[in-house]
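worker-03 picked up job from queue 'complexes'. Input manifest follows; two sequence lines, order preserved.
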Amino acid sequence: MRPFDRWAVGLTVPAVLLTTLFYVLPIAQVLVLSVTEPAPGLANYEQLLGSRAVARVVMTTLEVSLWTTALTIAASYVVAYALVQMRPSVRRVALFMVLVPFWISVLVRAFSWITILRREGLVNLAVTGLGIVDEPLQLVHNRTGVIIGMVHYMMPFAVLLIYANLAGIDRRIMQAGRSLGARPMTVFWKLWVPLSAPGIAVATLFVFIFSLGFLITPTLLGAGRTVMVAEYISVQITNTLRWGVATGLSTMLLVAVGFVVFIAMRQPALRAAFSGRQG
Amino acid sequence: MSFLVARDLRKTYGPVTALADIGLDVEEGEFVTLLGPSGSGKTTLLMAIAGFTRPDSGTISLAGRDITGVEPEDRDFGFVFQGYALFPHMSVADNIAFPLKVRKWDRARVDARVEEMLGTVGLADLARRKPRELSGGQQQRVAIARALAFHPKILLLDEPLSALDRTLRETMQRELKRLHRQTGVTFLYVTHDQEEAIAMSDRIAVFQKGRIVQVGAPRDLYYAPSTRFVAGFLGVNNLVDARLVRGADGAVEIEALGARVALPPGKVADLPEGPATVFMRPEDIALEPTPGEPALAIAGTVADVSFVGSFDLVVIEPRGGPEITAHLPADRTRALPVGAPITVFVRADAIGVVPNT
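worker-03 finished. Artifact:
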């Protein structure tokens, strides 16, 4: 190793120390707590697996995450597709608008959604005022509200991931499709969609895993009626002080995410995405 | 009226004029090459004919029908792209079947045609491969087979051989000529490579700065270029500033590189007296004059000699002008050290004259 390389490796030492101290050790401690608190053994896991409340929370988490993922990917694909079709000058403005939510705190966003979606909110005023519905819609403090807030939070990530993929596709392939007689719909479904499979796969995996751990958005927009895993864990730690249950559930979430990644990485589209080639 | 007719096509990109009121006629079954340096408008014209570029003004018509506003997918033109643009997620067979499936051909007909096209381009064994598993030359063949599979009215080719190495390029040139003969489809071919254009085309349209400066058979362009640009672009040419002098009896003399010679009658009928450009091909420059024929005698010094194989490439620095290149027989050049004085001769009838601009 040359002296420069030694220096370069040396520069990573603080990061390794920080990660070990503040990330790896706490996670290890979570694992340890889950089998020692309040008494050594697997009692926490037995309790978790037997609890109907936990089962309901897990089911809610899965359903909300799946809905969030599906809606986020569909909506983000539309935006990303529009982005690649735009003239560069327009695209710069559009990309900036995609990025704006990144600078707004998740708390502010959640409260904004509550004011927009509540019974006397903007949306309900509009739809009742226009006579589209008679009764105000129940859009918040339930699962719908949680999903709306989560989709909003996840979209910029998904848009950027899919956009990066679409922008890398050779546009001559689409021209070739048209010259061979394919109409816009055929070009979209037979060429754009399959060629963007790696981007869709990465965005799907990312959004789904991220969704599983949402805390603030479901807590505020779900108002206790839609409880997801992270909120349940948080309640166990701060309110009921059942640390053993909380750490046990955290461990199970960690394992579940690991399992999802493991399964996903066996898909050709994802492997392609991570090896940097198309198709 | 011709099969494909482009009239007064104009296209500008901001301050850049890509097409300056271009017109072109192509007969059915012809192999026409659009030749020119990059940025001369040849690809813009091809894209306009394909339908991907909307001209600002002018019309394109096919067999008497105006197709200027027709979408590319409705034109039935095959297009071979630079870099091939194969569908990377489909096998070779599926690539070729794509235009047939979008035309709703039935399964048996698609299969038969795909097999036929694979045979035509010699890729029957590779039907199940993905494009990335093929060599450049094989990908090229797939692109051509795909573009010809649906019996297109015209095949448009945009620098299809530019990514291939030299020997493969020559093989593919012959292959394309064979396909042209075999299918009878009209080929419209874009290239910046003059050798390629000369070797393949029935006619060549030479582009310069958004205009077509000359159209004609390769031989006509080679031997009778109409401008200095065409003379310089086709074949390796020595272009030299000269003076045209008309005598009282209609005789025309040319003065170049410190020498003077009378040109055969009729050679430069329409050029005025005064400055002009003469061109001399390296193969027309000799060490001795041909007996009984007038020749331009150029005196100078040898600047460089390089062995090329069948002849030697000799660079000569004439006394009164820029360097010229001559192909001289190899057995004679051993006596020509760099710096030695030399006199070479160009037959008067081998000297071409074009306007200075």
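worker-03 released lock.
The longest helix of chain B spans residues 166-183.
Chain B has a mean pLDDT of 90.
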